[in-house]
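User: Quick sanity check before I run a bigger batch. Here is a single chain. Can you write out its predicted 3D structure?
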Amino acid sequence: MPIDAIVFDKDGTLFDFANTWGAFGRSMLLRLSNRDETRAAELGKVIGFDFQQQRYAEDSIVIAATVDEIAEVLVPHIEGMLLGELIELMNAEAATIPQAPATPLGPLLERLQNSGIKLGIATNDSEHPALQHLESAGVRQHFDFVAGYDSGHGFKPGPGQLLAFATHVGVDPARIAMVGDSLHDLQAGRAAGMTTIGVLTGLAPAGALAPMADVVLPDIGHIPDWLVENQHAKL
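Assistant: Done. Predicted structure follows.
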């Protein structure tokens, strides 16, 4: 079956998760704890983040949850802050974080686009920070569709974002590939009836992704060759 469109997760897929979000986790927790490192480390444990190592656990809620879900877990441990205030703060801070591309994005996305493949983003991040991240990386123009958890299509592992992308670009889900670094991504792809491609630029190991993936690749830079080798596209 030819692949006529690809929908990507953002964090851990387009952008390397550890290199992008490790420093952010530390700075955000310091801000929420009034720069008390002991308190920041305690808050880190709540969300599966090692404050000293700037490293997320493989089961950290931050990896696949929405900003709302992360804030709901944190807010009971933060005095004097309402849930809405915390969500607003996290979104504002996240929008400014420098992104670490998992591979040179411009040449890859241009190659896919030039072959006629439609491209989209489905992220459990908020839409505004997602757009800011794509703009800062200089690749916003390559995407036909960008959806965050707050864009009105639901969020992963539900298939709503993916099916909205399929409708937007007019491509049968069976001819679309979903690319992601977490089980949430791949579960959403399976639920939408799409080919599923796992990548290892997040925190999940290959063994965890394999049951839900049609293939697991080191990073998204390997997608064009895989499409050609498996006769899914001519690039």
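Residues 17-32 form the longest helix (16 residues).

User: Great, the batch can go ahead then.
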